[in-house]
Design brief:
It is a multi-pass membrane protein. The chain has two domains: 211 residues, ABC transporter type 1, transmembrane domain (ABC transporter transmembrane region fold); 101 residues, 3-Layer(aba) Sandwich (Rossmann fold). The protein contains twelve helices and four strands. A hairpin with a 7-residue loop joins strand 1 and strand 2. It is elongated.
């Protein structure tokens, strides 16, 4: 779970999270299916082939090592560029969020006859994402072109070197031919694995994003840790200061003092934006005070178990969503 401040961030809206998880989870499969097996197989075959080439004709083997080093430098450069573009596409992806928010509020949009406006916004954001996809496709095409042509380049160099080695009688013809064929097998293994390389970069990016969400520690702490005590109902705000994390320059509470005794009914009255909903959110520990103390039965709310605290609270919002049935049945659904 995450605290409310996490979802206040425009980068973590519900629409964006739904879009990212729906996209990233399938992208991670490349690291676990046959594509990963093909890359492992190709890497093993390439290393073994270079070792054979070194054993039979060391000049050609050294040439193979040099080619592999050049290939790795070039491939790592392309991987870094593709990774950067993947991260940028995730951060700047507004099209998915816009689509989900439009679908969720389609009736309101239709009543206000704003369909064309929202379509134009979605189209504009989609075109921006398309431009980034084209840039990523360019680097993926470079990777494909390089790996497909590298085999013929290495063939040419290896045969030229092999002829020279035989001419100066450094190695016999059969040993030279075996080494050249070993390099040919290494190149073929590389060609087989090359199409899957962009998929592995995409899987790495997706896994990083998914685990960044799953492993993030909420600012309210571990929900299972803390004191589990029976709540009586006395609440006190003692010099509470609070600012929303997304608006640190705009204070919402400045030294609030408020005591509420158990069994009493309290009404919070004030204009919009005066902090009424914020006070309720702090009571449920969606947010913690920036300064001061919120105490429940004389205990600091931050010392209480978050899960246990919320099981002893009930909240009916301004726009409650109910299932078909009685209010009692809906309350039972919530408790279940």
């Amino acid at each position: 779970f995450q605290d409310a401040a996490y979802f206040d961030n425009p980068a973590h809206t519900g629409g964006k999270l739904i879009t990212r998880l729906a996209t990233d989870a399938p992208n991670m499969q490349a690291a676990f299916d046959a594509r990963m097996m093909s890359i492992v197989y190709a890497s093993s075959a390439m290393l073994m082939s270079i070792a054979i080439a070194l054993g039979f004709c060391w000049p050609i083997g050294l040439l193979g090592i040099l080619c592999v080093i050049i290939m790795l430098i070039y491939t790592l450069f392309l991987a870094y560029r593709i990774y950067q573009l993947n991260i940028l596409m995730v951060k700047e992806d507004e099209a998915g969020r816009r689509a989900i928010e439009t679908i969720e509020n389609v009736r309101t949009i239709q009543l206000l006859t704003r369909e064309k406006k929202f379509f134009e916004l979605y189209y504009k954001e989609l075109m921006q994402q398309q431009g980034r996809e084209h840039s990523k496709g360019f680097y993926e095409a470079l990777n494909f072109a390089f790996t497909q042509s590298e085999m013929f380049i290495i063939f040419t160099i290896c045969f030229a070197l092999g002829i020279h080695v035989m001419y100066i009688e450094l190695m016999s013809a059969d040993r030279t031919f075996i080494a050249v064929n070993a390099m040919m097998i290494a190149c073929e293994a590389l060609i087989q694995a090359a199409p899957f390389f962009p998929e592995m970069v995409k899987a790495k990016t997706a896994a990083g994003l998914v685990f960044a969400v799953a492993l993030r520690e909420p600012t309210t702490g571990d929900s299972a840790k803390g004191q589990q005590v029976q709540i009586v109902g006395n609440v006190s705000f003692e010099g509470v200061h609070f600012r929303y994390p997304q608006k640190p320059k705009h204070p919402v509470m400045r030294g609030l003092h408020l005591n509420i005794r158990k069994g009493t009914t309290v009404a919070l009255v004030g204009p919009s934006g005066s902090g009424k909903s914020t006070l309720i959110s702090m009571l449920e520990r969606f947010y913690d005070p920036s300064g001061g103390f919120l105490k429940i039965d004389g205990r600091d709310s931050r010392a209480l178990s978050l899960d246990h605290l919320r099981t002893q609270m009930a909240l009916v919002g301004q726009e409650p969503r109910l299932f078909s049935g009685s209010i009692r049945e809906n309350i039972c659904f919530g408790l279940g």
